[in-house]
Amino acid sequence: MKPGPSPARLYSLLLVMVFFWAVSFVAGKIALREIPAMVLPAIRMGLAALFLLPVYWWDGRNHVEPRWTLRDVPVLTALSLLGVALNQIFYLASLSRTSVGHSSLIIGLTPIVVLGIAAAVGQEHVTARRVLGMAIALGGVVVLQAGKSAGSTVFGDILAGGAALTFAGFSVLGRKTSAQHSPIAVVTILYVLGALFLIPVAWWNWGSFSPHAVSAEAWWNVVYMALFPSVVSYLIFYWALRHMPASRVTALGYLQPLIATATAILVLGEPITTALVTGGLLVLFGVGVAERT
Fold it and tell me: Does 146 map to a domain?
């Protein structure tokens, strides 16, 4: 039997995964300086689908994939709308209207939103400890809102909440589909469908946008967002799931808001405020309490 990877290799790759996800907040902020918020999602997911198609083809050569049927169409449509189209619209629209610190922390509430939805549909059991964690994390959001910082708006923070909500709905709805099919097959199809849904939105908001006027810096950040967080990090995530429990794979995700905020401070010059530090610590602590097994 072939031995699994060493813990050092596993955790090193997981740190790379979290780093790519965290830096995508800053990359998105830079790209949004020149590309409209309703145009960028289609470009990002279209490129991500193109990057992932060769991986899907290679994966299909190595194992037999269960056939998709007409019964799968409604679920795949709902998943692509929630997890790709609407999620990306909320995520990038929030980045265009609020700070990286606020956006990353509020989107960091996703595990708690997942727990709430899963409990509502009978997939999870809510304990007193989990309720306490939810309350602490939501208290952190209240602190964030009480002390507004430069570059953040209430509407932008609400949009970030929309990103957390849509991805949470996607996570709960997608459990059965992910169990029946290869993760690479599922995400490739969802990326393709999501890009198709986003194209009309981009076309409607194209306006005076001219791709030729976009700088190389902005385009490189778009490519980064499409390739590393959407494809490379995803492949690391599912590779790691083969070798360790999901709870341990996702545990390092708590570093994402910290890395995103620190990167934004260094690269974008976002301010450090008392509300950001206090609210951020409460959010992270609350999520940790709610998710602790």
Answer: yes
Please report whether residue 1 resides in a domain: no
Token reading at 98: 């609020």
- Can you read off the two tokens belonging to residue 173? 């709805």
Sign (positive or negative) of CA dihedral 75, 78, 81, 83: negative
281 within domain boundaries? yes
> Following CA atoms 233, 57, 92, 258 in sequence, which dihedral angle do they give, to the nearest 10 degrees?
0
Where in the sequence is the domain holding 259, given as residue range(s)? 7-291
pLDDT digits (tens, 9 = 90+) for 229-286: 998 988 887 777 667 655 566 667 778 888 999 999 999 999 888 888 888 888 888 8
pLDDT value of residue 85: 95
User: In the chain, which stretches have pLDDT less than 70?
Assistant: 1-2, 62-65, 123, 148, 175-180, 241-242, 244-251, 291-293
Distances (CA, A) of 26 to 23, 95, 261: 5, 9, 9
Whether the CB-CB separation of 276 and 100 falls below 8 Å is answered with no
Quick check: is 2 in a domain? no
Number of compact structural domains in the chain? 1
